[in-house]
Amino acid sequence: MITKLFKILIPLLIYAFGREFIATLQMVSFADVFQKIFFIALGGGFLFTTIFIKTHGYLAILAHELTHNVLGVLTFNKPIALNVEANSGGYFAYQGKQNILSVLAPYFFPLLTVFIFPIYFILASSGAEVYFGLLGATLGFSFSIAIRQGKPHQPDLHVFGITWSYLIILFFQILIWGLLISFVIGRIPMLVSFVKMSTDHIIELYQIAKALVMMGLDMIKG
Fold first, then answer.
1. Nearest-CA neighbor of 38 among 126, 128, 133?
2. Which residues lie below 8 Å from residue 209, measured CB to CB, with a gap of 6+?
3. What are the average pLDDT values for consecutive 10-residue runs of the chain, which has 222 residues?
4. Phi, psi angles (nearest 5°) of residue 151
5. Model's pTM, two decimal places?
6. CB under 8 Å to 108, separation ≥6 — which residues?
7. Distance (Å) of CA 206 to CA 8, 175, 203
C-alpha cells in the first residue's frame, strides 16, 4: 500500500534528483579516460545484452529473480523459493510483507553493478580501467533487461498500481544513475555532492510551497 504522503513525495523527488541528474550529465567529459571507458562500456553492455540476451532467456530471468531475492533479504524478508525456467519465466517467494524495494527492484536495481562498486576501495590504481569498464558494462546489462521486462503486462507493476510503479522506478533509476555517474566523474566527493544538491532542491521546493500556503492563508484572512 502506498501512502498519500509517499504519493506526494515521489513527483517532488523525481524533480529534485532529476534536476541534479541533468546538471551532472552536463559535467561529463570524454577527455577523462575513466569516464570515456565507463560510457563506452555502458553502451556496449546495453547493445550486447539487447542483441544477444533474450528477455525471457535463462540469464535474464535469473538476474530478475535474484534481484527480487537480494532486496527481499535486505528488507528483512525470508526467501522460501526461487525458480527460474528459460522461456517460461520464474518466481520468487518469501515470508514477510510486500514492499516497494523487493517487488520493483528488478526494474531499477543493477545487482551486478552494486556488487562490483565496492571493489574500487580495495583496487590498485593499475586496475582502474578494467573496474570502470565493468561498472559501465554491468549497468548497461541491467538497464537493457529492466526496460525490456518492465512492460505493462508485468505482474510486479500491478502490485502498487502501474502508474505509481513506473513513477517509483523512474525515481530510483534517476537516483542510481545519478550516484554512479557522479562517482565516475569525481568519485566519493562528487557522489556526496549529488545527494546534497538534490536535497537542497527538495528544501527549496518545500520553502516555495510553504510560502505559497502562507500567502494563500493571508489572502483568505484578508
1. 133
2. none
3. 75 96 98 98 98 94 93 88 74 81 96 96 86 98 97 94 95 98 97 98 91 88 74
4. -85, 160
5. 0.93
6. 146, 169, 172, 173, 176
7. 12, 20, 5
